[in-house]
Design goal:
Layout (H helix, E strand, L loop, with lengths): L5 H15 L9 H8 L3 H7 L3 H22 L3 H14 L1 H8 L7 H17 L15 H22 L5 H12 L3 H5 L7
Helix pairs in contact: 1-2, 4-5, 4-7, 5-9, 7-8
Length: 191
């Protein structure tokens, strides 16, 4: 979508978001979206193929675009914090979005996009020592961290907790930097 078309795309997106807070995604029609936006139906189709395409656009515009810029600058922790910040800023909508399941579901869209973002962050490099483990492709490693991140986001959103994006980023980083073995060892206290 070109920059000069942004205001109408945003209007359509805001209409879907408003509708999703009171109606399930499956029951929302294009007519409902266009009525809410006070535009004609053909205008919707000038911007989006269907409501799933619109949902994907919302994910890209509201959640991933800013994080992608940070990833390209090598600022991975800041990018993850930005993801949590964007989700937290409209938590009610994103809880409803996670309820959109199946093919083209919100979680599927988010996982696909984040995996690509992590592949970009890793720069197509395999971790040192993984050469003999063919399954550890950059794509599989990116998927591992993506699923952990999306799972963390979803659990946090549905828990009702109000943790800050800083705390959520620190928790994700803590887990991402440790092995399952180190997490399962008994804690050792030093005096």
């Amino acid at each position: 979508m070109s920059e000069h078309r942004e205001p109408t795309g945003r209007l359509i997106a805001d209409s879907l978001k408003k509708l999703m807070l009171k109606t399930s995604f499956e029951k929302i029609s294009i007519k409902m979206i266009t009525d809410e936006a006070e535009i004609r139906r053909p205008t919707f189709y000038n911007y989006f193929q269907d409501k799933y395409d619109l949902l994907e656009w919302i994910v890209d515009e509201e959640v991933l675009r800013k994080s992608e810029l940070l990833i390209k600058q090598g600022m991975t922790d800041e990018a993850i914090k930005m993801l949590f910040t964007c989700i937290a800023s409209d938590a009610a909508f994103y809880r409803k979005a996670f309820e959109v399941t199946g093919q083209n579901g919100f979680e599927e869209i988010l996982v696909g996009r984040l995996q690509k973002l992590f592949v970009t962050a890793f720069g197509r490099r395999r971790p040192t020592g993984s050469e003999d483990l063919d399954i550890l492709t950059v794509e599989n490693i990116a998927l591992y961290y993506t699923l952990a991140l999306v799972g963390s986001m979803k659990a946090w959103l549905f828990s009702g907790r109000r943790d800050s994006p800083d705390a959520l980023t620190a928790a994700y980083s803590f887990l991402a930097e440790r092995s399952l073995r180190s997490l399962s060892e008994p804690l050792r206290y030093t005096i």
